[in-house]
């Protein structure tokens, strides 16, 4: 069984690369094989111009339970967990953030450890009401990784980030929405439709503009206002040269729906 299913279904979801974590019997925990599947999917997303949005979800009752804890050799005299971060998790998060296309995440069940932070590395996160987010690291004597110590304080503030990381307490999808950790919590039965609808909307959007919005929002975390104003000027200058801008304005003036091509 492939640990990651990747499909671009032009008829049902044009422009949407669906990526499904597919180890349901282990709640889609990360293995080397699953990492390879995600790396291949990212290469496809980066190189295939037919891909205009990614939709990430999990098979079965869980989203992702983080690192597969059975994969490590606990009898080894020295265990170097930094190596796995350096070669697998960190490149994955960096590629997701740098991808100039939107990534929608549909959290269908529990998201724990690196699984929770992988979800937070996506651009817009929806979660089923029955899903939950767990910073499980502390329960096995580790620290948050996969970007968690960066995402959590920025999304929830220091207090909540600290308590989530130090207690490993389960945060319901509803509270995750209330705390600003995710975009929306939806009824379980609606998760697939809602996430597909959003992915489809983004895939039919002005791709260049969406990629630059992503850059502007993420870069703002490290810029002062003056640098951010400069960045907005540069992005607007670039994107204003594109066909989608002309199409957007023409559609507005002609009172019709724009037909964005991503150019
Ligand atoms: O090593 C490195 O590279 C360092 C990097 C670490 C990054 C991390 O992600 S560290 C954190 C790792 N994750 C965890 O510690 C979470 C472990 N899992 C759980 O705490 C629970 O499974 C959940 C709270 C997520 C869900 O609980 P529940 O009761 O709904 O399900 P379950 O029965 O515990 O799990 C179902 C099956 O999945 C079960 O397998 P079995 O017994 O039916 O054959 C369970 O062992 C397996 N499973 C769940 N999580 C993992 C896992 N197997 C391996 N690794 C897992 N992380």
Give the helices and strands, then pairings:
Elements: E1 4-8, E2 16-21, H1 32-47, E3 53-58, E4 62-64, H2 81-98, E5 103-107, E6 110-112, H3 114-120, E7 124-128, E8 132-134, H4 148-156, H5 158-167, E9 170-172, H6 173-178, E10 184-186, H7 191-203, H8 207-219, H9 225-239, H10 243-253
Parallel strand pairs: 2-3, 3-5, 4-6, 5-7, 6-8, 7-10
Antiparallel strand pairs: 1-2, 8-9
Helix pairs in contact: 1-2, 4-5, 8-9
This protein binds ligand T3D.
Residues 26-27, 29, 65-70, 72, 81, 84, 110, 112-114, 134, 136-137, 139-140, 142, 145 line the site of ligand T3D.
Explain what you see.
The protein has two domains: about 5-205, 2-enoyl-CoA Hydratase, Chain A, domain 1, CATH 3.90.226; about 205-255, Lyase 2-enoyl-coa Hydratase, Chain  A, domain 2, CATH 1.10.12. Helices cover about 45% and strands about 15% of the residues. It has ten helices and ten strands. It has helices spanning about 30-45, 80-100, 115-120, 150-155, 160-165, 175-180, 190-205, 205-220, 225-240, 245-255, and strands at about 5-10, 15-20, 55-60, 60-65, 105, 110, 125-130, 130-135, 170, 185. Strands 1-2-3-5-7-10 form a six-stranded mixed β-sheet, sandwiched between helices. Strands 4-6-8-9 form a four-stranded mixed β-sheet. α1 packs parallel to α2. The longest helix is centred in the middle third of the chain and has 18 residues, at about 80-100. Bound molecules: ligand T3D. Ligand T3D binds near residues 29, 112, 136 and 137.
């Amino acid at each position: 069984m492939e640990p990651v299913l990747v499909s671009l279904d032009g008829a049902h979801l044009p422009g949407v690369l669906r990526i499904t974590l597919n180890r349901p019997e282990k709640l889609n925990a990360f293995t080397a094989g699953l990492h390879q599947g995600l790396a291949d999917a990212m290469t496809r997303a980066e190189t295939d111009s037919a891909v205009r949005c990614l939709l990430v979800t999990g098979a079965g009752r869980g989203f992702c339970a983080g690192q597969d804890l059975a994969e490590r050799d606990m009898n080894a005299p020295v265990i170097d967990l930094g190596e796995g971060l350096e070669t697998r998790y960190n490149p994955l998060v960096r590629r997701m953030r740098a991808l100039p296309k939107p990534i929608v995440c549909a959290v269908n069940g529990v998201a724990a450890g690196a699984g929770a932070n992988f979800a937070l590395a996506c651009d817009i996160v929806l979660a089923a009401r029955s899903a939950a987010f767990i910073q499980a690291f502390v329960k096995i004597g580790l620290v948050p990784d996969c970007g968690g110590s960066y995402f959590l304080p920025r999304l929830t503030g220091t207090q909540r980030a600290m308590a989530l990381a130090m207690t490993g307490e389960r945060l319901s999808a509803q509270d995750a929405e209330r705390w600003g950790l995710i975009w929306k919590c939806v009824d379980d039965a609606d998760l697939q439709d809602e996430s597909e609808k959003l992915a489809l909307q983004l895939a039919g959007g002005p791709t260049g503009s969406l990629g630059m919005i992503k850059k502007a929002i993420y870069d703002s975390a490290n810029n002062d206002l003056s640098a951010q104003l400069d960045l907005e000027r540069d992005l607007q200058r670039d994107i204003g040269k594109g066909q989608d801008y002309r199409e957007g304005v023409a559609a507005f003036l002609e009172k019709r729906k724009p037909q964005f091509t991503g150019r």
